[in-house]
Amino acid sequence: MTSTDATAAGPGRAGVWNLPNILTMLRIALVPFFVWFLIADAPGLHSESGPWRWAAAAAFAVAIYTDKLDGDIARSRNLVTDFGKIADPIADKLLIGSALVMLSVLGELPWWATLVILVREWGVTALRFFVIRYGVIPASRGGKLKTVIQTAAIFLYLLPLAAIAPWLAWLAFAVMMVAVAVTVWTGVEYVVEAMRLRAKGKVQGTTKGGQEPA
After folding, report:
1. Cβ distance 34 to 99 under 8 Å?
2. Is the four-CA dihedral 41, 43, 45, 46 of positive or negative sign?
3. What are residue 211's phi and psi, to 5 degrees?
């Protein structure tokens, strides 16, 4: 393909094997290592806050950085692909979900907080697929803020500094509670947007075809 043809192809036509997608796949590949580091630090599921816990925190930080980096590169170099659109949110949910579950398994994070966040995350994903015939629900500013706060809360939990500075454990819990609140709030926003999109799509379907879409 010539450079002119490649330019004309536009977004979504770049090959799968490009740098942003490789970074996304790297993030997915880091998840089992991240989980293993947490388990290695917690024999009998009792965290020891040793070097493996630092390794888990570092793996999480690297994975989160690749999330920002792959998006920036994809947009700046016109390398947005259909694979990336699907794989990127899956990678994010795997990373965040595994971190929340492992923190709850280790007894550091209440299970109810993990379940609220996971139900919201996968519920919104299912909702997007449910209304996709009517249109796409874009990521909101609140949704992006939710991701930032969730990431900050998890990272604070992962840092093995509570023994040195006990107040950090309370800070981590406080930030996580804010994350849960924003997660629920943005979830409600997405439900309202999905209902609006569905209602609008039904009206348009009735106007064009004389009946609602099946």
Report:
1. yes
2. negative
3. -155, 160
